Amino acid sequence: MRNLRLPSFALLCLSLVAFAAMATTHDSPTQEQIIKHSRPSEWHTLDPANTLYMDLPSGRVVIELAPQWSPRHVANIKTLVHEHYFDHTSVYRVVDNFVAQWGDPDGDDPAKAKPMGSAKTTLPPEFVRHVHGPLPFVPLGSPDVYAPEVGFSGDFPVGRDPSTHTAWIAHCYGTVGVARDVAPDSGNGNTLYAVIGNARRIDRNLAVAGRVVRGMPLLSSLPRGPKDHMGVYRDLGRATPILKMRLASDLPADQRLPLQIMRTDSASFRRLLHASAHKHNAFYRYSPGHIDLCAVAPPVRLKPKAATSSSDR
Questions:
Q1: Among 11, 12, 127, 182, which residue's Cβ finds the most Cβ atoms within 10 Å?
Q2: What's the CA gap between 25 and 11, in Å, rounded?
Q3: What long-range pairs does 129-134 form, CB within 8 A, spacing at least 24?
Q4: Exposure class string for 251-275: b at 16+ Cβ within 10 A, else e
């Protein structure tokens, strides 16, 4: 009786099928899958007292403020918002692969500048945070060229330098900072910017007030200003009007967006970091095993209307 042998071509086909099945089994989970399987306790709702709504003709931009990192600047911004300073100002500067900036385009001209009311006109620099005790920190686990260590603290991507006991929010996509002149104390919060490109080079040189958690396409898709004019529109008729800015806490509860952010100290966020650094699927056959700090942001979602309690015990 002869042995039953498969042709080599058939063996090759079976091997490829087995490899494909194995590769599929070991595909990295997508962000959507990680979010779907996350637990309610791994999310927290935005604090209305530190949530800004900036309404543009095209929609709403939602900003999470960071009073733990720049308390004086955030307090001044809140004063300006309460006194309606930003209403009817504009996004008047857009630099490709850098920032979109808003405020009073005449702010540098004392004769034309919009009054700042009871807000302070100068503030001491808050470029870094001096850390002399425990600071929540989830390490990224990848090297960085701008900071000795990088990771996440609360909802924000941060760098830190243990040798100087300092930490700071990194200028990743969506970071909201306080524009200033040359003098370190010239940034008072009446002119803000959101990062729309690569801006890590200005880390530790400006105060960071927060980050955009919803509505970034409304800023990143704006027409760019001329390069030889530092991105400022020569024709301010091209500027995007700001209809109004309000703190969520100043609005009735039924007019607030119930946004939640995934906790960066959660197991689901760690899975997201690992999946991003070790991405593998039918398309991604090679993974570097590392990831840039600005490549992953804590996911944001609308609070589910109904939450199950059995799965998060």
A1: 127
A2: 21
A3: 129/68, 129/69, 129/166, 129/167, 129/168, 130/165, 130/166, 131/160, 131/165, 131/166, 131/167, 132/165
A4: eeeeebbebbbbbbebebbebbbbb
Token output for 168: 């700071």
pTM, two decimal places: 0.89
Distances in whole angstroms, Cα of residue 29 to Cα of each of 32, 142, 278, 290: 8, 20, 10, 16
Token pair in block for residue 280: 């593998």
Domains of the chain (ranges plus CATH)? 45-261 (2.40.100.10)
> Strand pairing partners for 169?
158
Cα(109)–Cα(89) distance, integer angstroms = 15
Instruction: Report which of 154, 191, 242, 243 is spatially closest to residue 76, judged by C-alpha positions.
Output: 191
Pairing of strands 175-178, 90-94: unpaired
Q: Are 215 and 62 in contact (CB under 8 A)?
A: yes
Q: How many residues does the chain have?
A: 313
pLDDT (tens, 9 = 90+) of the chain, 313 residues, equals: 444 444 544 444 444 444 344 444 579 999 999 999 999 999 999 999 999 999 999 999 999 999 999 999 999 999 999 999 999 999 999 999 999 999 999 998 889 999 999 999 999 999 999 998 889 999 999 999 999 999 999 999 999 999 999 999 999 999 999 999 999 999 999 999 999 999 999 999 999 999 999 999 999 999 999 999 999 999 999 999 999 999 999 999 999 999 999 999 999 999 999 999 999 989 988 988 999 999 999 999 999 986 544 444 3
